[in-house]
Amino acid sequence: MKKKTPTIVMSLILFGCFFLPYFFMQSGFDIVFKSTFGMVGLGWGKYLWLLVPVSAIMLLLGESDGKYFIGKNTLEWIPLLTLLFIIVWLKIKTYSSIGNLLEGMGYGFWISLATSLMLKFYNPKRKK
Which DSSP symbol is given to 16? Predict the structure, then answer.
C-alpha cells in the first residue's frame, strides 16, 4: 500500500461523515446550512463545523498533486482540534454536564473523531 492511500481514504471518510448525524440526529450540513438546529447561542460557531470537511478536501487535493495549500501537518491537526473545540465550546455554551453532551453526539461525529485521530497519528512505513 502506498503512503498516500491511508490519507486519501481517511480524507474521504472525514468528508462523508459531514453528511451523517453529528449532533442530535442532524448532520454537519444541517447544522451549518439549515436553520432547524435548535440550540441557543450557536451564532457564528455553527461555521466551525465546516473546518472538518474543508480540511479533508484540502488534504485530498494535496495528496493527489503533492502540493498543499497549507502544510500537511497543519491540515491533519485541523479536524481533530476542531472536533475537540466543538465539544468544549458546546459544553460551555449549552450543557451543565459533559455526559448529556456526549449522549447527543451522533455516529457521524464519533467516526469523524476516530478518523481524525488516525489521520494525525497513523504513520505507515514504506515497504522495501
Answer: H
120 secondary structure, DSSP code: H
The closest alpha carbon to 115, from 1, 20, 2, belongs to 20
Average pLDDT over every residue of 113-124: 84
Q: Which own/partner pairs from 5-12 qualify as long-range (CB within 8 Å, at least 24 positions apart)?
A: 6/118, 6/122, 6/124, 7/59, 7/63, 7/119, 8/60, 8/63, 8/64, 10/115, 10/118, 10/119, 10/122, 11/56, 11/57, 11/59, 11/60, 11/63, 11/119, 12/56, 12/60
Give yes or no for residue 5 having a pLDDT over 60: yes
Q: Kindly report, residue by residue over 71-108, the tens digit of the pLDDT.
A: 888 888 999 998 888 888 777 777 667 777 778 788 88
C-alpha to C-alpha distance for 43 and 97, rounded to whole angstroms: 21
Q: C-alpha grid cell for residue 81? A: 482540534
Choose among 65, 67, 63: nearest CA to 14: 63
| Sign of the torsion formed by the C-alpha atoms of 68, 73, 76 and 81 | negative
* Closest of 101, 105, 116, 107 to residue 7, by C-alpha: 116
